[in-house]
Design goal:
- α11 (293-304) links the parallel β6 and β7 (312-317).
- It is globular, with a radius of gyration of 26 Å.
- With 357 residues, the protein is α/β, with parallel strands linked by helices.
- The longest helix has 21 residues, at 34-54.
- It has helices at residues 34-54, 74-91, 106-119, 124-133, 179-190, 193-196, 202-218, 222-225, 238-253, 258-261, 293-304, 329-339, 341-346; strands at 8-12, 20-24, 59-62, 98-101, 266-271, 277-282, 312-317, 347-353.
- The chain is 42% helix and 12% strand.
- It is built from 13 helices and 8 strands.
- The protein folds into 2 domains: 8-133, Leucine Aminopeptidase, subunit E, domain 1 (3-Layer(aba) Sandwich); 220-353, CRAL-TRIO lipid binding domain (Phosphatidylinositol Transfer Protein Sec14p, 3-Layer(aba) Sandwich), CATH 3.40.525.10.
- A 4-stranded mixed β-sheet has the order 5-6-7-8. The chain has a two-stranded antiparallel ribbon with strand order 1-2.
- It comes from Aegilops tauschii subsp. strangulata (Goatgrass).
């Protein structure tokens, strides 16, 4: 029979150099259903590993289940694959002898070489690096994406509710069964106010964000008056930043942005004296009147993605840029927010070049 997305089935290997072959179906990717695609992909890897144990096997070689044909962005998918395997191995110690990631392209090889030490550090130095570079959202105990707003939350009873009594017929339960005591213990632990206050309620957190945004819009915007644009939007958490960047990167990889690239506003310009890659930005080429800003942002994300994974340099050519209308500070801040903290952390040096007569 067939196999549904996220599920896996095992067949004989026949003439292949393996004992068994496991088949699975990866998800199609759409920015709108980013979380669903991540969890479906995680389930693919976990289903394969579960079949491995169920059939008494100890090692597996796994290819990239996500494919270009299904528009899945490579790096976010690699994060899902590696963290799912890591979580599974944590729960099934001693049952699996080896997991091999089979990579067929140089770009995927580079991604896995960079990400594997973050999830499987081999020494103290790699462990310290992983603490600073791992994304904020590394999934739940199975490696699946967690969204706080979708969690079931248990609130304590409103004040005074405990004083209200409900007339019910007494139940004659045998005390020696221990059922009543166990249920009360669990309920008390869930309703413990000190336990519940460890993490702020997602609903309250979102309400606070809306309140800050509303206040920022109502205040007199001096930055906009001075021509800097809207720079008052609230900052994002690391998880929100990662999700925003992933959505833009996935959309950029699915579009043909050649008309933006041909304008040569930004382009890769080799390496500097220390071997760091260089990104060149030409201010005079930024033709604001005939430029689709949303497509330009997608082009920026796509061009910067290979560079911001490690230290890099930016060279900005300002000559003749004042002759063209330039984007405001709010627009530049928004690009910086989409690129994420990795962009700021790995930017080694910025060089401003102004040619004068």
């Amino acid at each position: 029979g067939g196999c549904r997305t996220g599920m896996a089935k095992m067949t004989n290997a026949y003439d292949l150099p393996a004992r068994k072959v496991i088949h699975t179906v990866g998800p199609k990717y759409a920015v709108k259903y980013h979380t669903a695609a991540e969890n479906a992909l995680s389930h693919c890897y976990r289903s394969c590993l579960e079949l491995l144990i169920e059939n008494g096997l100890e090692s597996i070689a796994m290819g990239c289940i996500y494919t270009e044909a299904k528009n899945y962005p490579r790096e976010p998918a690699a994060h899902v694959a590696i963290r799912t395997v890591r979580r599974f191995l944590e729960k099934q110690k001693g049952k699996i002898a080896g997991v091999i990631f089979c990579i067929t392209s140089s770009s995927d090889t580079e991604i896995y070489k960079r990400l594997l030490p973050l999830y499987f550090p081999r020494d103290k130095q790699e462990e310290e690096t992983a603490v600073s570079k791992l994304p904020a959202d590394v999934g739940d105990e199975n490696g699946e994406t967690v969204i706080d707003e979708r969690k079931i939350r248990i609130r304590p009873l409103p004040a005074g509710a405990a004083d209200r009594t409900v007339a019910t017929a007494p139940l004659d339960l045998p005390l020696e069964s221990g059922l009543a005591s166990r249920s009360t213990f669990k309920l008390d632990s869930y309703l413990d106010p000190s336990f519940m206050s460890l993490i702020k309620d997602p609903d309250l957190r979102r309400k606070e964000q809306w309140g800050k945004s509303s206040q920022a819009q109502k205040r007199f915007n001096y930055a906009r008056l001075l021509g800097y644009g809207d720079i008052g939007f609230p900052p994002l958490s690391a998880a929100e930043e990662y999700s925003l960047h992933s959505r833009y990167l996935a959309k950029a990889n699915s579009l043909n942005l050649s008309e933006i690239a041909e304008m040569k506003i930004i382009y890769r310009g080799g390496v500097d004296s220390e071997g760091r890659p260089v990104m060149v930005v030409v201010g005079a080429h930024f033709l604001l009147r005939c430029l689709d800003l949303e497509r330009f942002v997608l082009h920026v994300v796509k061009e910067f993605e290979p560079l911001i994974q490690k230290p890099y340099t930016i060279v900005y050519l300002h000559s003749a840029a004042s002759l063209q209308p330039q984007p405001d500070l709010g627009f530049m801040k928004r690009i910086q927010q989409i690129l994420g903290r990795k962009h700021q952390r790995n930017l080694h040096v910025g060089i401003l070049v102004v040619l004068t007569m």
